[in-house]
Write a structure and sequence with these properties.
By secondary structure, the protein is α+β, with helices and mostly antiparallel strands. Among the domains are: 2-59; 145-247, OB fold (Dihydrolipoamide Acetyltransferase, E2P). Helix content is 35%, strand content 13%. Strands 1, 2, 3, 4, 5, 6, 7, 8 and 9 form a 9-stranded mixed sheet that branches. It is rod-shaped, with a radius of gyration of 74 Å. The termini are far apart.
Amino acid sequence: MARSGSKGTRRKSGSRRSASGKSRSSLLPWLAALVVVAGGIAAYDNSREVRRFFNGFGSGKPQETAVRKTPNHPVPPKPVPARPVSASRSTAEAAPVPPAPIPSAPVRQVAALVPPQPIAKPDAVEPRDTTPKEAVMRPGDGLSGAYQAKFYLCGTAKQDDCVVSADRFVFHGQKIRLVGIEVPDIKKPRCEAERIKASDAELRVRAFLDAGPFELVTWQGNNEEVDGHKLRQVTRNGMSLADILVREGLARRPGSKAGWC
């Protein structure tokens, strides 16, 4: 009985040994794989040092691999002390800088241009203005020559440059009487026909004087006045106003026996 018991125990211990040996042999491949993986990771992390090692191994010169120690806590950088600024520089920078003066442009003096004198043409005769201008009479003038003025009929509102009757008018304050004709009396007509003739003759004289330039000619060189009137002949372009009135039947020659009625 004792042998059988000892045999049983021996068999159990032998089986235990074989099982432990099998488990050890089965873990070896996993351990080898773990070592390879760990070595690959380490080689990847330290690839630069590994290349240096193999390069030095191939050349025969030993290479020192520097081990970089990473501190556990980052060291803050040292503060750089500020350089002191001089008081003169600070005051110079603080003081306002006046703007630079703008140079004024030089004033150019230009001499005045003097136009050249016109060259007179030889034998040049200036044209004369033959148009009579409106007369400006003065007291004592002889009233002879060419004149031009605007005439009206004399009345209460007009007493100058106006026609009084068929043979009398006022020109610049002087009374003029036509010579060489007799006209119908407009103030005291003897009949209606004479009144009409006198009115027509008065209008005809005004129209003649107002039509344009006319000339006053003294009567036979006599400048004396008769009844306060100067005796004058009135002409235009050589045509006498007295002749026009006689031809139109508004006046007659002195000494004629024909009447107006």
